[in-house]
């Protein structure tokens, strides 16, 4: 005879998983990892805790899925820009301009989840912080690789410090994200992007912009 518990496990889900996941993205994006409780998540997702655990696993597993979902739908624009544009400068310029737009769009949390979700995190959540830090550093490495390719091709001067320049871009992006969370508007972030681009080494092939 089937037990009540086994019958419950066998029931189909009564909620839309993708919709619930989108609400989880917004919750973590707004509050950060540690400040978002299971109660916050179940309330936002419109499901009970048993359904959350059955569909997504524990809070950490859900957060990992949230970060991947965020990357597919909201983040990733800087990496795409650097990969798609013909030079590192063009890629960074496009990425910074897109950041000014993306970080301030109405109807969604401000800034970048990957940058802000692990701020003020405790040692108990150090693995989460390390995972997000690695994602940010991966972006910096991609920029540095593009800069090195431009140095090798003669686009940039041979003395250009690719690592330092890429880290500078990463710092600007993080500052723009925090600025958006503090209330900066798109035009303010665009001004920051313009100033940051003035620090870019002059191309050896094109007139300075």
UniProtKB/TrEMBL annotation:
SUPFAM superfamilies in alphabetical order: Homeodomain-like, Tetracyclin repressor-like, C-terminal domain
Portion annotated as DNA-binding: 37-56
PANTHER family given in the database record: HTH-TYPE TRANSCRIPTIONAL REGULATOR YJDC, TRANSCRIPTIONAL REGULATORY PROTEIN
Domain HTH tetR-type: 14-74
Keyword tags: DNA-binding, Transcription, Transcription regulation
Protein name, entry field: TetR/AcrR family transcriptional regulator
Organism: Streptomyces decoyicus
């Amino acid at each position: 005879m089937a037990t009540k518990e086994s019958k419950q496990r066998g029931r189909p889900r009564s909620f839309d998983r993708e919709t619930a996941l989108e609400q989880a993205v917004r919750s973590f994006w707004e509050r950060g990892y540690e400040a978002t409780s299971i109660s916050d998540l179940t309330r936002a997702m419109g499901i009970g805790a048993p359904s959350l655990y059955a569909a997504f696993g524990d809070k950490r597993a859900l957060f990992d899925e949230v970060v991947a979902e965020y990357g597919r739908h909201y983040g990733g624009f800087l990496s795409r820009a650097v990969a798609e544009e013909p030079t590192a400068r063009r890629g960074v310029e496009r990425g910074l301009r897109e950041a000014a737009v993306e970080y301030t769009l109405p109807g969604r949390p401000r800034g970048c989840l990957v940058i802000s979700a692990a701020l003020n995190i405790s040692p108990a959540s150090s693995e989460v912080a390390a995972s997000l830090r690695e994602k940010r550093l991966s972006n910096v490495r991609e920029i540095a690789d593009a800069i090195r390719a431009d140095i090798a091709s003669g686009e940039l001067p041979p003395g250009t410090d690719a690592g330092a320049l890429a880290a500078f871009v990463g710092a600007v992006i993080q500052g723009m994200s925090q600025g958006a969370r503090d209330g900066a508007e798109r035009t303010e972030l665009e001004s920051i992007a313009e100033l940051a681009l003035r620090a870019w080494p002059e191309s050896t092939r094109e007139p300075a912009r």
